[in-house]
Amino acid sequence: MSLAGKVAFVTGAAQGLGKAFSEALLKKGAKVEAFETVISCFGGLDIMVNNAGIANEHNYALMVNINLTGVITGTNMAIDLMNREKGGRGGVIVNIASTAGITPEAYFAPIYTGTKHGVVGFTRCWSMNPYIAKMGLRFACLCPAFTDTQILCSTITDYPEDAQKIIQQVGINKVETVTEGFMQLVEDNQCNGAVMVITAQNGIQYHRKPHGISRM
Ligand SMILES: NC(=O)C1=CN([C@@H]2O[C@H](COP(=O)(O)OP(=O)(O)OC[C@H]3O[C@@H](n4cnc5c(N)ncnc54)[C@H](O)[C@@H]3O)[C@@H](O)[C@H]2O)C=CC1
Ligand SMILES: CCCCCC(=O)/C=C/C=C\C/C=C\C/C=C\CCCC(=O)O
Asked: What SUPFAM superfamilies is this protein classified in (predicted)?
């Protein structure tokens, strides 16, 4: 996808990964806008990035609301705006999950892990819908491991020493590496259903595609 003139919306773009993603999109000529502006000034949306997220096991209702319900709401709004069959221009929806959405290694954060598994499952399910081709839509999911942003300063109350050990073992991604992977997902029109995993040790990789239940 050429990004020149494309309209993008990134949730949670004030800092961290959301800010870096917005800057990378702007550099390639996209317009990164607030939702109201997207409709009133640009008449549509081409790239939706559901990025906002928190890590707080103690206020789990809030965390589920932001990390999972927020992604579902943002995706639904984007589908309505982008659906070619309803006058939209088509486009890509990238949902930001985590490696915690694939493996349950972060046992000190079961609810965070649950929200991120939800994001991966929700995104994969949409990507397998046979009607999205007519709608002009594609879906992708980005799963970074620990990355150098403010969320890493979240206080881990359960098994904090274990958590620190896990962070040391897994390593910490650079924001630039995660942004590079994100841009691949946005620009590669062939990557519907991609689940991209990014770790400090192995860099950018794609997680295998799931099979239907009859083929398990
Ligand atoms: N940094 C990391 O180690 C990793 C982060 N992630 C995910 O990446 C995403 C971005 O996080 P980071 O940039 O790392 O953290 P961050 O804490 O720097 O940024 C989070 C952003 O979300 C926004 N946000 C939080 N609640 C919101 C709400 N209710 N409405 C709108 N915006 C809200 C914040 O204002 C902030 O801009 C999150 O979904 C996080 O779970 C995934 C894997 C690793
Ligand atoms: C091996 C797991 C990789 C997880 C990557 C990730 O998403 C990183 C997030 C960054 C910071 C938060 C760390 C852990 C997970 C979240 C919740 C911590 C819970 C805080 C608490 O309330 O105890």
From this structure: NAD(P)-binding Rossmann-fold domains
CA of 151 to the centre of ligand 1 (A): 6
Report the Cα–Cα distance between both ends of the chain, in Å, rounded.
33
pLDDT tens per residue across span 110-128: 999 999 999 999 999 999 9
Note the maximum CA span of the chain.
53
Domains assigned to the chain = 7-206 (3.40.50.720)
ipTM: 0.93
CA angle 54, 195, 190 (to 5 degrees): 130
Q: What SS3 state is found at 15?
A: coil
DSSP-derived 3-state class of residue 8: strand
Nearest to 182 by CA among 36, 32, 34: 32
Distance 65 CA to ligand 1 centre (A): 13
Contact 17, 147 (CB under 8 A): yes
- Based on the residue annotation, tell me whether 131 is a catalytic residue of this protein: no
